[in-house]
Design goal:
By secondary structure, this protein is an alpha+beta fold. The protein contains ten helices and nine strands. The chain has one domain. Strands 1, 2, 4, 8 and 9 form a five-stranded mixed sheet that branches. Helix 2 packs antiparallel against helix 3 and helix 6 crosses helix 8. The radius of gyration is 19 Å and the shape is globular. 29% of the residues are buried. This is FRG domain-containing protein. It comes from Bradyrhizobium algeriense.
């Protein structure tokens, strides 16, 4: 068994085994402060619509305010009318738009995700240690979880169709805030075509535990549950790698968080 309950030392060993057996697919990691939390996007946890067309209309409507206030700007990309036409053009048109490397306004959406606006992007890190920091950063009296995600099957293959939800991996090569690169961020989206209309969907409807007997598997999820009592040990080790809130976020607030955790553990 390569996932399940484990100590920090066992997690590092099992993660190394996974990386060695990635079978031509990237392995991504995500940390949760509670082992009870599901794989959910901030959009799912909000009251915003999960209809893809409506969501794009919303974020493009607020873009002028975001750019004015932040001083940031993003390439215009395709306008909303073109997005709308593609989404309404049937499943093939929708798939080309959302799942074949042309995800509209990806950079802008990554910025919104990092700054708190509800997002269909589920954020992952290429580093298991970054994921571990997010899992252990807040003191809790319950066990934490670190997820590992493998998108493709052996040889880098992936199959899909209009009859089921699909997960698409959006790579790291996008203009984004500094924290996107510090955290080695990558994102996945889950979309579905229901009753001839496109929606953002739930990752949990697609991800499956690893089955060693299966000849082909994609969208595989591994879940490691670690005891909360390891928090002090883990954060101390991550600090030795200079991995803390300040290096991951780069803000004044994150500096305060880093100093707090350092002093909580006896100073530095």
């Amino acid at each position: 068994m390569i996932d399940g309950n484990c100590t920090w030392e066992e997690f590092k060993t099992r993660t190394a085994e996974l990386l060695d057996k990635a079978e031509g697919s990237k392995l991504l990691f995500r940390g949760h402060g509670s082992s009870k939390w599901e794989l959910q996007t901030t959009l799912e946890r909000s009251q915003h619509t999960v209809e893809i067309e409506d969501y794009y209309e919303t974020i493009l409507k607020i873009r002028t305010e975001v750019q004015t206030y932040t001083g940031q700007s993003w390439p215009d990309g395709i306008d909303f009318s073109e997005i709308q036409a593609n989404l309404r053009g049937g499943y093939d048109s929708f798939s080309r738009l959302m799942t074949f490397g042309s995800f509209p306004h990806y950079a802008y959406m990554a910025y919104l995700r990092h700054h708190g606006f509800p997002s269909p992007l589920l954020d992952w890190s290429a580093s298991p240690f970054v994921a571990a920091y997010f899992a252990f950063r807040e003191p809790r009296e319950e066990d934490i979880a670190i997820f590992a995600f493998r998108e493709r099957g052996p040889g880098g293959m992936k199959i899909g169709g209009s009859d089921s939800p699909a997960i698409t991996l959006l790579g790291p090569y996008v203009q984004g805030p500094k924290r996107h690169f510090a955290q080695q961020s990558q994102y996945t989206i889950c979309t579905t075509w229901e009753e001839n209309w496109p929606f953002f969907s739930e990752h949990s409807k697609v991800c499956r535990p690893y089955d060693p007997e299966a000849e082909f598997q994609q969208d595989v999820i591994f879940k490691f549950v670690l005891p909360h009592t390891e928090r002090r040990k883990v954060l101390r080790e991550l600090q030795m790698y200079n991995l803390n809130a300040f290096t991951l976020f780069g803000s004044e607030e994150s500096l305060m968080e880093s100093l707090s955790i350092r002093e909580e553990q006896g100073g530095g």
